[in-house]
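Quick note —
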Amino acid sequence: MQVVLDLREKELEERQMEMAKILAVLNEQKEKLQSIISAQENNKVKLEALCTSDDLIIQQVESHRDYGMKLITDAKNQERIISNTEFILKKKQEEVLEAHQKVEVLKKLKDKQEKEYYKEFLQAEVKEIDDITSARHRFR
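Predicted structure written out below.
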């Protein structure tokens, strides 16, 4: 029983480690999205500054506009990646929960078997004492 319990606990730990890695990747992806959003804001400010300046340079405006479009695409892609990673994380959380439940069931079963074993042991001990007492009583 203990061997199976140890295997289940090891499986639970592995699943938890996998979940932690996925969570770390998700946090990195969210940081990347934040940097894209920040770049969008900076680009927007620079574009507005170019448009309001006295020296309007069309190539720079087009360059910032194109960069802004690229950032919008990057942000949408990053949001999709984050969504997929969150889905994977949810599945991994379900696996961790399932593994945890298996461990708990085995622990309860082990405890129940231990209690039953000690109960039977005590009953056998009491019976043995009774037999010894009866045998002594007969020999007197």
